[in-house]
Amino acid sequence: MEKIHNATILIVEDESVFRLIYRGVLEKEGYQVLEAENGLTAWDLVKKKKPDLVLLDLILPELSGYEVLKKIRTDEETKEIPVIIFSVLGAGEDIQKALDLGANYYRVKGSNSPSEILNYIHKLLDKN
Amino acid sequence: MSKILIVDDEAIITAQVKEYLTSMGYKVLKCASSGEQAIELARELRPDLILMDIVMSNNEMDGIIAAKNIKEELDIPIIFMTAYGGDKIIQETKDVDPYGFLEKPFQQNELKTTIEVALYRKDMERRLRESEEKYRSVVDSAIEAIMTIDIHMHIFFWNHAAETMFGYTIDEAKSRHFTFIIPERLRKKVQNEMERMVLTEEDYAGAKTNECIGLRKDGTEFPMEFSLASWIVKETIYFTIIARDITERKKIEQMKSDFVSLVSHQLKTPIAGITGCIDNMLSGLTGSLNEKQIEYLQIMHELSSRSYRIISDLLNISRIERGIISIEILPHNLNDIIYTAIREHEKYIEKKGLKLNINNMDDNITVLSDRDKLFEALSNVIDNAIKFTEKGSITISTKKDDKYGLIDIIDTGKGIPENQLNNLFQKDQIFSGAPKAKSGAGLGLYIAKEFMKLQNGDVRITSSIGMGCRVSFKIPLFKKKVRRKNGKNT
User: Fold this and answer.
1) N or C, which end of chain B has less CB nearby within 10 Å?
2) What pLDDT, in 10s, does the model give residues B410-431?
3) Superfamily for B330-476?
4) Which CATH number does B3-137 carry?
């Protein structure tokens, strides 16, 4: 099986355990992984490194996930970057808000196995 | 023995009347010969009844004026006696509201009848007033706002508590349409509901409680609860509304809900973390595992997944209670959703050694539903079916009728006694420590029911001991505007 992906993925997550989990899954698939543990660092990295995809938590220090998403979508240089939200928030209103702001997918943390996120990543990166 | 005062300026008449009265067993206190004297004696002796002449020639104050004074000050019943029983005099006595009228000369039996009727009336009035006072004191000391409205929904009574609750005095509230204490946006709805009750002659005597919003004079709003009862006088219907301010209760409910929500979110993160780590280990990310390790990790995975599920259920319940579940009803292929739910449980079914029958699936059913909510409801039911079935099979099938898409999920578990079936969908039952076959049961069906209701569908369960369970879902069909085809296509 072909497992070489040159794409770079930014994981934005304040809980180190989730960074560990997703890094594991993504690196196994051959992706380059960047990490940010708060909203501000995340936005810096998006601007500087222009990752191919962002995995974004919503509840974050400094700058919330919603804010980061808004910045990504309103900046000419970054607005095309696919964003997958993964959050413990699972209420319809949270999901709707994120989708309205331009998130490509929304996954509720813990309700699926981590490797399932790969399906969404593959889909989004194939499109680009 | 009733005590009577006689007032007449003709001594011969007072003597005659006194003799009659005494012989009939009444006690004559005294005889007055003028209005003025009558007032004084009435004050002093407090008779039960006064027999009063109207025209007393040697005194400028005639009997009617004296009677007025006595009535206002002492409230003693008065019977007039007069030789001039013309219409004019009767008209003049009206202000005094006499308890009787005797035209001189009168017979002893006339006197007796008139006195007895007067005393009886006085007694009835006293009793009525007492009972009214009793009722008033209850109504006035009530914490609930109590108001009475007529068929046109105009207020004609409201108690102290209503004055405090809404800020209007009874005079300000009187004759107003009762919806003035409800915010404008809700008025039409409440009024329609009331009118419907009047028209359908629904049984509103058994006061039912409704929650609504109250509007105070100062424009502020508050949550209230009210009940409605009706009563009929001379074929006209009246309503009594009892309203209660439930601000405090709502606050506590909100706090409880917020607490559940906060704790759940806090718990979700670490459990999702644990599950994720185990997932990665099981998928070989941390190197190869031996069989024992795999078995242990699988157990851990199952346990943390279950914890996660219970917390999600709690969150869902708190959302249902707060009414903040948002749903998105769209056309979906029914089987797609079912297959997704089945896939989630394949491992579990396999592990328990059950057979999965997917029979009679109609692939052409499009339903109007919220995908996630329907998925969750189905998933909860499938999960239960597996949990309570030790051997045999789970059978899933779909079909449709002219209105609904229908799903049956049948297991071969030991079933549920018929008298417990109704309780399964109730939340109270879950928290009251009802007997359960296994831990973790309960929340799922309540949520399934609530979610199906939100989608205009339903879920029902039939079962009996030894027969397994059949859970049936129905979901409204999506009807495309299509031309009718000729012939049958089923």
Assistant:
1) C
2) 999 888 877 777 777 776 555 4
3) Histidine kinase-like ATPase, C-terminal domain (3.30.565.10)
4) 3.40.50.2300
